[in-house]
Amino acid sequence: MSTFRIVIAGNSGVGKSSILMQYTDGCFLDGPPSTIGVDFRFKHLEIGRRQIKLQIWDTAGQERFSAVSASYYRSANGILLVYDLTGRETFESIAENLKSIREITGDSLPIVLVGNKRDSKRQISYQDAYDFAGEQGLSYMEVSAKTGENVHVCFELLASLVLERCKD
Description:
Layout: E1 2-10, H1 16-25, E2 38-47, E3 50-59, H2 66-74, E4 78-84, H3 88-92, H4 94-105, E5 111-116, H5 126-136, E6 139-142, H6 151-167
Parallel strand pairs: 1-3, 1-4, 4-5, 5-6
Antiparallel strand pairs: 2-3
């Protein structure tokens, strides 16, 4: 069984921990405390008859933890870069977050841009986010950590991209 390290990155408050909890435990904690440094969980899944284990690292979004988060990017096999569909400032900061990640990892690491809080009133159009992702060579998904919509799908997409990269 292959083990892949996945890092969830993004600004504070975008729902990274909620996405992780929904994916690994099937629950949503409304207003969980902020992650201090990093947290991690494991998840087993099957992609194309291949059993894999995801080691998922939830990084803190606060600027003071950026050096800690950077160390996890270096050893990542894939990244979920999360922003909040209800907060324009989180979307506008994606370009800078992506630049920081790519300075550490290069351009070949699979990254899925994830718009969270799909269940709420959005400030970012699907088309704007999809176009940005395409320009940056990223896959794009929208999820709701609250309802669970597309949460499993985004992890499966990233795992598939990681597996594909391993074949190269």
